[in-house]
Write a structure and sequence with these properties.
By secondary structure, the protein is mostly helical. It is 54% helix and 4% strand. It has two domains: 1-31; 34-141, Cytochrome c-like domain (Cytochrome Bc1 Complex, Chain D, domain 2, Orthogonal Bundle). Strand 1 (62-64) and strand 2 form a beta hairpin. Residues 21-29 have low confidence and may be disordered.
């Protein structure tokens, strides 16, 4: 009888430990992904090369009637208010479908992902350090605030 009680107590304890580990793993998987430091660095370079001409190297936007450019700011309160409640995937999809302005829909996926990383970082989003890179399919889990 004593052996049975000890065995049951051991099984319950093991279940609690395993359950706690599963909860921690589920929380980690559900956590909002963060672009790696490598991605944000490469993203800044991609942004400057592909987007900087119109939106400015510092993301403040630009308007030039002579050149026919009217590019909105991509950082700060105005940008944040416009994108609040949307996801990084929404931003990715807009860039994919409308940029560059002179050849919409032609930007390579890696350039778009890099631009999204740079834009989010410029708006105060911390990078994930040496963590894993964010894939395009993970963008739906990044809420813009």
């Amino acid at each position: 009888m004593r052996f049975g009680v000890v065995a049951i107590a051991g099984a319950v304890a093991a279940g609690i430990v395993c359950g706690a580990a599963l909860v921690r793993e589920a929380r980690a998987q559900a956590a909002e992904p963060a672009f790696s430091a490598r991605q944000t660095g490469a993203g800044g370079a991609a942004y400057r090369a592909a987007c900087g001409r119109c939106h400015g190297d510092t993301l403040v936007g630009r308007a030039s009637h002579e050149e026919g450019i009217e590019a909105p700011t991509l950082k700060g309160p105005q940008f944040q208010a416009k994108w609040r409640g949307k996801t990084a995937k929404d931003l990715y999809d807009l860039i994919r479908d409308t940029m560059p302005g002179d050849k919409p829909g032609t930007a390579p996926p890696a350039t778009i992902l890099g631009a999204v990383a740079a834009i989010l970082q410029a708006n105060g989003r911390a990078d994930g350090g040496e963590g894993p890179d964010v894939a395009a399919e993970d963008l739906i889990r990044i809420q813009l605030k």
